[in-house]
Amino acid sequence: MVFLGTITEALATKSGRVVRARMRIDHAYKGVTEKTLVLFDDGMCDGPDLQVGEQYLMYTRRNGNGDVPSRGCSRSRHLRDATEDMQFLNGLSNASPFSTVFGRILDRTDDYYGNEQPLAGALVELKGIPGTHVTTTDGDGRYSFEHLEPAKYTVSADLQGFRMLTFGSSELPAAEVQPRGCAVVNMIMRRRWRGSIVGRLIRSNGEPGPDGLDLTLIRLENRNGKEESNYLFGHGSETDERGEYSFSEVTPGRYKIAMNVYSFPTEKAPYPTMYWPGVRTEGDAGIIEVKDEASQQRFDFRLPPEPKMTKVTGTVLGSDGKPASGVRVAITALPDNNISADDENRPQTDAYGHFSFIAIEGFDYSLSARQAGKTSWHSAELVYSGDKRQDSITLVLDRQGLFDNDPVKRVRDQRD
User: For the residues 114-130, what does the mean pLDDT come to?
Assistant: First the structure.
């Protein structure tokens, strides 16, 4: 859906922000036949802040329930910021049947502010069934391919000393353009720095540490005259079967290395957050200097003795006092507030309302049961100590919402 419209009425607000509004359709370009639409703003992703009396160019779609979001990481924007878009849309009726692919290439740094600089002189290749086209970026990192046959194309960029960031995907960015249509393909590149950091995790008995342990680089940066830490979570590493880890293409600078940041302790990796060379606080961590040199620096961790572990069982009861099955129990390891991307800290109750987890000596655990549904419920928070045996744990689902002051529930109530 593409249309130009004016907000005529605010239907709901939250903290002074319009979250539901009626829009008059001033001009429909695609997918709209109504004279008015109701938009909702969930505050997620990019999008304009809706204001009564203001005019917006909207790129959006209907949700499954018929709602029309004003956000969604699209090009939706206030009319004053849509000059180029309006020129393109209003010129479609007189345009040739050919298409355009354009975009911008930026050089990403690792600093806290995520500064990205335009990359001039990058070679951009557009490839599809109709043929292959090549161009280079200008001083602002921009490129454009015009007069293209409508088709699906892949786009790639190349510049000596740099590499494209594909963010885990093995496929090149793609663009499928229709007659008189266009597509925007922006790309990020990163300099191939020569510095690297390698090391090994060693158990207290001298054997290699476990595989799969997470390690994170911390870059020390000068912000307003003060050196502060920037955790580079997108530049992490995991140990292999020999307990080895490595960071490559490290930007020159000062670093620390952290292990198990926000990682839930498990039987395989029963360790708290630690810093090289094997200390518990970041303030005691060693500092590593990295230069743009083709050489490796090695930094080994010495792990503490593995602590004792205990299997803990518990029961979740509904508000009626009966066992609640299929309920998730959220568990956080204290004092580091570590969680997990897997299910070690989110066990589910069985048909009898029972659940279990492995408690590790040296940690306390915060537990809360959560039951989602048409009406959601949660329990009070209970703290269990891994250093003290408790015969049983019981959680009771006696509070509405998935957690205290549930914002999801409040937003839902406003919309209904």
Answer: 91
* Residue 235, CB-side half-sphere exposure with 13 Å CA sphere: 23
Task: Check if the beta carbon of residue 299 is closer than 8 Å to that of residue 288.
Answer: yes
DSSP code string of 365-379: EEEEEEE-SSS-EEE
Q: How many CB atoms lie within 10 A of CB 403?
A: 16
280: CB partners within 8 A, 6+ apart: 272, 273, 274
Q: Per CATH, the architecture of 309-400 is what?
A: Sandwich (2.60)
- What's the CA gap between 235 and 366, in Å, rounded? 29
Fold entry, domain 97-191: Immunoglobulin-like (2.60.40)
- Answer whether 0.85 is exceeded by the pTM: no
Residue closest to 317 by CA, chosen among 349, 347, 346: 349
> CB of 396 within 8 A of CB of 380?
yes
**Is the Cβ–Cβ distance between 280 and 273 less than 8 Å?**
yes
For residue range 171-200, list pLDDT tens digits in order. Answer: 899 999 988 788 999 999 999 999 999 999
Is residue 82 exposed (0-12), middle (13-18) or buried (19+ Cβ within 10 Å)?
buried
CATH topology for the 2-90 domain: OB fold (Dihydrolipoamide Acetyltransferase, E2P) (2.40.50)
Measured on CA atoms in the order 87, 121, 140, 192, is the torsion positive or negative?
A: positive
- List, in sequence order, the alpha helices (H) in 63-135: 83-90
CATH architecture of the region 197-302: Sandwich (2.60)
Rounded CA-CA distance 357/30 in Å is 53
- 408 pLDDT higher than 70: no
CA distances, 158 to each of 126, 138, 164 (Å): 12, 14, 7
- Single-letter code of the amino acid located at 348: Q
